[in-house]
């Protein structure tokens, strides 16, 4: 399937949509679910829970379909991750009882067990559902953030985790990326082409999409927490690149701040003192070396900037809740 064929496919009104346009009633287009949803009522939530078996075959990680237009989708939930991408037009969803309007280019990631419904789509509204099996909400993204020994990535991972845990869904404005829509197009064309090595290609496209979403999250989050006089992103980046023997006074001179003012602003924006940030950077270096080298613990402590191995052990266990040896074994 080429991109022109993809556009024709997405805008074509299928047989189910024709019926929904005539009746305004949602029609089940998944034969495995039967003719009635009543058998799938969740006793805890008292709404429909769609089983993953209806969408995923053995070893299948990704299922994609275009959301049928012209009729509302009833409130439901499921035990897999769902990403909905507004390919064209707009979409209105009700998530946890909150009405959320998604313009073109919005991508909403829903956690497991999140009640949601979708208002009827118009003819020019194209909504893509991407279902992901055997993942958790955080694991989709946090690996991308945590697999770096940088303060910025660690700060963003914390921010992401807090938001994800609180809301159980996240919305990304993919218009912030000039490449994202094209990546989705290639992803969809591959999915509906059914060519050799399809699953391998889909895995790689999915990784690119997740990395692009992390980039969007990074850009959005850093700009949201920045004010006109203090750019903490630049300061964390400088600490990342110059942490060896760095002192608060040196950092203050580089950015033209009074030391006390800089210390207070770091506490305000990052929630940590300069010394705590520096310690975190050294622990991130240590964790990266434990994952990716066979260096001894003493060597790693020294490479990360710790003069005392016993102090390194104490601080590492306090931060990661395990010893360096246990961390290496788990990694």
Strand order of the largest sheet: 1-3-8-5-6
Class by alpha and beta content: alpha+beta
Please state the second-level CATH architecture of the largest domain: Sandwich
Per CATH, the superfamily of the largest domain is Regulatory protein AraC
Overall 3D form:
elongated
Radius of gyration: 24 Å
**SSE pattern:** HHEEEEEEEEEHHEHHHHHHHHH
Termini separation comes to 40 Å
Q: Give me the CATH fold name of the largest domain.
A: Jelly Rolls
Strand elements, count:
10
Mind telling me the CATH class of the largest domain? Answer: Mainly Beta
Helix share bin: 40-55%
How many domain modules? 2
- List the uncertain runs: none
Tally of individual helices: 13
- Give the averaged pLDDT, no decimals: 88
For the biggest sheet, the summary is: 5 strands, mixed
Strand content: 15-25%
List keywords for this structure.
331 residues; alpha+beta; Jelly Rolls; Arc Repressor Mutant, subunit A; 2 domains; 5-stranded antiparallel beta sheet; 48% helix; elongated
Describe the structure.
By secondary structure, this protein is α+β, with helices and mostly antiparallel strands. It folds into 2 domains: 3-223, Sandwich (Jelly Rolls), CATH 2.60.120; 227-330, Arc Repressor Mutant, subunit A (Orthogonal Bundle). It is built from 13 helices and 10 strands. The chain has helices spanning 3-11, 15-23, 137-146, 151-167, 180-191, 198-224, 232-242, 248-255, 259-269, 274-292, 297-303, 309-320, 324-330, and strands spanning 48-50, 62-66, 73-78, 81-88, 90-95, 98-103, 106-110, 116-118, 126-132, 169-173. The strands form 2 sheets. A 5-stranded mixed β-sheet has the order 1-3-8-5-6, with no helix packed on it. A 5-stranded antiparallel β-sheet has the order 2-9-4-7-10. β5 (90-95) and β6 (98-103) form a beta hairpin. The longest helix has 27 residues, at 198-224. The radius of gyration is 24 Å and the shape is elongated. The two termini are 40 Å apart.
């Amino acid at each position: 399937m080429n991109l022109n064929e993809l556009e024709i496919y997405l805008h074509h009104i299928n047989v189910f949509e024709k019926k929904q346009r005539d009746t305004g009633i949602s029609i089940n287009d998944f034969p495995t679910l039967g003719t009635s949803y009543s058998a799938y009522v969740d006793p805890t939530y008292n709404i429909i829970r769609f089983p993953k078996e209806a969408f995923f075959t053995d070893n299948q990680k990704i299922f994609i379909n275009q959301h049928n237009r012209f009729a509302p989708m009833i409130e439901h939930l499921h035990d897999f991750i769902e990403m909905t991408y507004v390919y064209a037009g707009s979409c209105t969803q009700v998530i946890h009882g909150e009405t959320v309007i998604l313009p073109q280019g919005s991508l909403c990631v829903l956690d497991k067990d999140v009640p949601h419904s979708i208002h009827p789509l118009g003819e020019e509204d194209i909504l893509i559902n991407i279902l992901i099996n055997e993942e958790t909400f955080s694991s989709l993204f946090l690996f991308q953030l945590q697999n770096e020994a940088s303060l910025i990535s660690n700060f963003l991972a914390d921010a992401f985790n807090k938001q994800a845990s609180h809301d159980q869904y996240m919305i990304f404005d993919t218009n912030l990326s000039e490449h994202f829509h094209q990546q989705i197009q290639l992803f969809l064309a591959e999915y509906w082409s059914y060519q050799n090595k399809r699953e391998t290609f889909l895995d790689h496209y999915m990784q690119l999409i997740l990395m692009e979403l992390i980039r969007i999250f990074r850009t959005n989050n850093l700009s949201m927490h920045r004010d006109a006089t203090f750019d903490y992103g630049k300061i964390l980046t400088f600490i990342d690149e110059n942490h060896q023997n760095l002192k608060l006074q040196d950092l203050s001179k580089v950015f033209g701040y009074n030391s006390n003012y800089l210390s207070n602003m770091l506490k305000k924006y990052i929630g940590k003192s300069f010394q705590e940030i520096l310690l975190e950077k050294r622990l991130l270096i240590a964790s990266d070396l434990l994952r990716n080298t066979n260096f001894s613990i003493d060597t790693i402590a020294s490479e990360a900037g710790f003069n005392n191995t016993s102090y390194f052990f104490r601080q590492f266990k306090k931060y990661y809740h395990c010893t360096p040896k246990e961390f290496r074994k788990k990694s």
